[in-house]
Amino acid sequence: MKPLRVALLGCGVVGTQVIRLMHEQSADLAARVGAPLELAGVAVRRLGRKRDVEVDPALFTTDAESLVTRDDVDIVIEVIGGIEPARSLIVSALSRGKSVVTANKALLAEDGATLHEAARAGNGDLYFEASVAGAIPLLRPLRESLAGDRVTRVLGIVNGTTNYILDKMDSTGASFLDALEEAQTLGYAEADPTADVEGFDAAAKAAILAGLAFHSRVTAEQVHREGITDITATDVASAEAMGYVIKLLAICARSDDGRTFGVRVHPAMIPRTHPLAGVREAYNAVFVEAESAGQLMFYGKGAGGAPTASAVLGDLVAVGRNRLAGTRGPEESTYAHLAVHPMGETVTRCHVALDVADKPGVLARVAELFAKHDVSIQTVRQEGHGDDAQLVIVTHRATDAALTATMEGLRELDIVRAIASVMRVEGDD
Amino acid sequence: MKPLRVALLGCGVVGTQVIRLMHEQSADLAARVGAPLELAGVAVRRLGRKRDVEVDPALFTTDAESLVTRDDVDIVIEVIGGIEPARSLIVSALSRGKSVVTANKALLAEDGATLHEAARAGNGDLYFEASVAGAIPLLRPLRESLAGDRVTRVLGIVNGTTNYILDKMDSTGASFLDALEEAQTLGYAEADPTADVEGFDAAAKAAILAGLAFHSRVTAEQVHREGITDITATDVASAEAMGYVIKLLAICARSDDGRTFGVRVHPAMIPRTHPLAGVREAYNAVFVEAESAGQLMFYGKGAGGAPTASAVLGDLVAVGRNRLAGTRGPEESTYAHLAVHPMGETVTRCHVALDVADKPGVLARVAELFAKHDVSIQTVRQEGHGDDAQLVIVTHRATDAALTATMEGLRELDIVRAIASVMRVEGDD
């Protein structure tokens, strides 16, 4: 049987694991695909560097563009990351009829449309399971298993670094900076942690998930994004006292009328009884609600060389089988053309802690302000007294615009000394 | 666009939901498939019965055999269940080149080979996502997403009835019979609960899972099966005292040398910190360990009309798309031809509670017996004293044969009054 020839772009943590698995499992992979898979070349930035994998040195090249356009290459695996040169290389490969497997969430979230169009034009496959939640089979279930259902909401812990930090803060009482430092020491966070802690990484994944869930096109720019750098040990303790835990969530939710949807990434309190609350350390998990299927959850490792390579190899087998059968897997599905609504229209609940003067009538004036903005209060708890009095309020569901206006109003109330913390509450409706 | 014509076999709880969804979501389904789906007929046992769904009465027929062989039928959905007439009807349909979507775990586990051969011969698709764990997308991830990885173990809660019963026993201290009665009242258990509580339902699912995980052919007969009818409130309390919870597990595990595997269904203690321990009520969850992906978990509703119909519709979309593209989805994959090893070779740990005489040397004689059978002890706890003394022992990993021989030896020791309980321990290695 004629082998399928695979070009690999990138030979870092994921790339070396892809090579190792292709080598170690070559017999199994050949049986599953129906033909052997053969490495045609590996594009790297620099030759001669020592690499943690056994591979014929002649396969390395710095000329990625020539590699992806070679006639003897059937499938291209892209694990370089970033926008360029990844985009140009993927488009080159797809335009020449090759199939592409990529783990590049940033590129898919910024300009997925260009890639999908190139795949259509070239009649090849574009698979990207590894781009969201690493090893967890998530995109294929969304794209295919739930194709007969209607997804209403996706709630996901899709960034392992921030989950590690928040879990440490929750279990040890550490501050954000101490937890971040520990995550950096252990290799869970990078020296510059911006992409993770400011939610950029999660926002790219949220855009990809929303696009698949709602059969519409979504870019990272459309995702409302807030990071976790302002979360304090006090916020975490306050959440714990109320039976909640703070997680950085990627949330994609259809509006009540089903005509639009929201996509956002922000820290939120979820009840400790929610399946996502038990997701510890750097694990990822994605909770999906669909009209008929009900509540589903997918859990596993969201990053790392071997887990990501597992997802890449799964795609490689599918793409290889499709090529042998002369067919293609499911295309981009954007038929619904639903619009993303602005954050202000998103309906959420809110937890607010207010430092207030302890005198008669304070609660009445605070309650009046909430009522004025049509935000109804679910629970109020008063803590301390005298100068240290604090009101802890959890609202019912309201639009984010109404909640924001309420917070602005609170800031102007003379009896409110400070808003100690504000956080959205998810997962208990 | 010419519609794809669908024949439905069975119009019970799942069938009526399939019809409802095909109707309510017809526009979405057409967009996702690429052509409208049209109901060609519905085979039922009796005409004229009142059904909880709107459908043209002319579509009903009692002649299922004629329906599945009609030239204008492209796809057959089988939700009758049981071996016959389901098998003959599916084989008839597949032999004539139609594609089949089925939820029939019993048939797949007893004689899947016949169905897969008919699909190959007819060049049609055989999809069966709904047969295991209802709405949870599980088989597609195992068949496709993990196709580039090597699955080492599957641990699953795949029967909602028994999970509901065990969860009630754990949370309320109820006896097995009281919990069963409550499950029956709530409709979670049938009047004759044998298939669930004796593990037959879980064993069929275990056979299907093992076949997919290890790329080998497995039948329900090869599954070692024990039910939950002997579990007492004392067992549950004893597990709780040790930090464990009792679940009915379907376990498929590769042997250490990778050449054989075991498939079994039995109650087991798992640590309360294990992700499966938090699976409550009638939910299902399947924990998968793969060499590269690491630990994955899939969670959701394992039964019910709408959840099962969601899985059926997901398959229907895939099968419909394949037909339009003139191709087929992944075939049965049995290339590995691994053998199922006997239960005696399965390696597990064991929790034993012994009623013993409280006199010097008892522990020494018990420990000696374990050592004689090469079973090493991890922890021993002595409870009570005098006539009520109890030894609670948890072993290290040993073969089931050695553990069984040890239990037989204990029964013959004069200092052991009774073996109060024996249970395997899983999920903490």
Automatic annotation (TrEMBL), chains A, B:
Belongs to the homoserine dehydrogenase family. NADP(+) binds at residues 9-16. GO terms for molecular function: homoserine dehydrogenase activity; metal ion binding; NADP binding. Residues 351-424 form the ACT domain. This is Homoserine dehydrogenase. Catalyzes the conversion of L-aspartate-beta-semialdehyde (L-Asa) to L-homoserine (L-Hse), the third step in the biosynthesis of threonine and methionine from aspartate. Coiled coil: none annotated. InterPro entries: ACT-like_dom_sf (IPR045865), ACT_dom (IPR002912), Asp/hSer_DH_NAD-bd (IPR005106), HDH (IPR016204), HDH_cat (IPR001342), HDH_CS (IPR019811), NAD(P)-bd_dom_sf (IPR036291). The active site is at residue 205. The keyword NAD applies. It catalyses: L-homoserine + NAD(+) = L-aspartate 4-semialdehyde + NADH + H(+); L-homoserine + NADP(+) = L-aspartate 4-semialdehyde + NADPH + H(+). Pathway: Amino-acid biosynthesis; L-threonine biosynthesis; L-threonine from L-aspartate: step 3/5; Amino-acid biosynthesis; L-methionine biosynthesis via de novo pathway; L-homoserine from L-aspartate: step 3/3. GO terms for biological process: methionine biosynthetic process; threonine biosynthetic process. It is an enzyme of class 1 (oxidoreductase).
